[in-house]
Design brief:
By secondary structure, the protein is α/β, with parallel strands linked by helices. The chain has 2 domains: about 170 residues, 3-Layer(aba) Sandwich (Rossmann fold); about 200 residues, Dehydroquinate synthase-like, alpha domain (Up-down Bundle), CATH 1.20.1090. Helix content is about 45%, strand content about 10%. The chain is built from 14 helices and 10 strands. A 6-stranded parallel sheet has the order 1-8-5-4-2-3, with helices on one face. The radius of gyration is 20 Å and the shape is globular.
């Protein structure tokens, strides 16, 4: 039976080619804007100039340098700048990390004298936020149309989520013309990130949510088809448009409505990124096959459905179909130049296992995943399978 749910998403999407030039239609009149972006790629690819030309009609201050996997210490510098200039709107131009960072800044500026990291570490309610709009430059995280952000803290070694309805962007511009400037590595990361976002909400256990399942399967099928096309040919506009919308739809609340969700792959993957700065998507590609192989019996029904509907696997027993689907998924990641093994990275396995288990225990996490099917002790088995 489908669970009760409430679906709310107020973000306006402005999608298509050359839509950045319409930015002025969506910025509030007389706003004092904090314009935030990453580490300079938008200056090299011309997006910065396109945005600055429009912002001439507004009062604004700039903050650059938001990292992949945005860092609290950096974001607090932006918070200080925003407070000093009494900004009342934030414009984030970048990928998911820049947008996640902007969401934290949005909540932290009006937070007061207390330590804003508490919003993340103590899951405090966001009472007030600065409205924000985004221009997406890399399809991957879906942050442009959801209420979540993930922030890293160098001092504590944590990578944690901040979630609030007050963090939905007011608008997000998805301009497919930006894709042609992206390197293959970022395209591959974006496709895999979106893919795993879907499986985290889909490969759990069946409850009769036929439409949600078919939404999920359609996104997975499209990512397999057009993700590969875009990786091979960055000039393929149709593939680019499809991948960009897939990444948004993968994590805007539709797929998770009324269904059980997992997120164990992300929880372990986040720790790999925090420890070794492995690209987020690449950490997910390492954990997914190992975790699914370990928990194949618990996830069997949905893995078989995934095998039959997405990978068109019709031969073999249910267990054989599930194993084959996992292998096909690994091969898909590899076709995008992404490894699924820890051995490709310079890590200390014993230290990694110990560190991740200690982090989870410090947060009071005993079991996680849908129905708590992953235990703390399973972390060691998963990482050994992934080595």
């Amino acid at each position: 039976m489908i669970n009760n749910y409430e679906l709310y998403n107020p973000t306006r999407l402005i999608f298509g080619e050359n839509r950045i030039e319409e930015l002025n239609q969506y910025l509030p009149e007389k706003a004092k804007i904090l314009f935030v972006y990453g580490q300079g790629s938008i200056k090299r690819n011309g997006i910065y100039d396109r945005v600055i030309d429009i912002l001439k009609g507004w009062e604004y201050v700039e903050f650059s340098g938001i990292e992949p996997n945005p860092v609290y210490e950096t974001l607090m510098k932006a918070v200080k700048l925003g407070r000093e200039n009494k900004v009342d709107f934030i414009l984030a131009v970048g990928g998911g990390s820049v947008i996640d960072g902007a969401k934290f800044i949005s909540a932290a500026i009006p937070f007061g004298d207390d330590e804003p990291w508490k919003l993340v570490s103590e899951h405090l309610e966001v009472i007030e936020s600065i409205p924000l709009g985004t221009i997406l430059t890399l399809p991957a995280t879906g942050s442009e149309m959801n209420k979540g952000a993930v922030i890293s803290n160098k001092a504590t070694g944590d990578k944690l989520a901040l979630i609030s309805e007050k963090l939905f962007p007011v608008f997000s511009i998805l301009d497919i013309s930006v894709l042609k400037s992206l390197p293959k590595r970022q395209i591959a990361n974006g496709v895999v990130d979106a893919f795993v976002h879907v499986t985290e909400q889909y490969i759990t256990y069946p409850i009769g949510a036929k439409l949600q399942d078919r939404f999920a399967e359609s996104i997975l099928l499209t990512l397999i088809e057009d993700g590969q096309k875009l990786y091979d040919d960055i000039e393929d506009k149709d593939a680019g448009a499809n991948v960009m919308f897939c990444a948004t739809m993968a994590l805007n609340g539709v797929l998770s409505s009324g269904v059980p969700t997992d997120w164990s792959i992300h929880m372990i993957g986040h720790e790999l990124t925090a420890l070794y700065n492995i690209d987020h998507a690449r950490s997910l590609a390492i954990i997914l096959p190992a975790l699914y192989n370990l928990k194949i019996n618990e996830k069997l029904e949905k893995l078989v459905q995934f095998a039959e509907r997405v990978w068109k696997i019709t031969k073999g027993s249910d267990i054989e179909k599930a194993h084959t689907a996992i292998k096909y998924t690994e091969n898909f990641f590899k076709s995008l130049g992404i490894s699924t093994k820890l051995s490709k990275y310079n890590i200390d396995l014993d230290f990694t296992i110990k560190s991740i288990k200690e982090k989870f225990e410090s947060r009071g996490i005993d079991n996680f995943g849908e129905n708590g099917i992953i235990s703390i002790d399973d972390i060691e088995a998963i990482l050994h399978k992934a080595k």
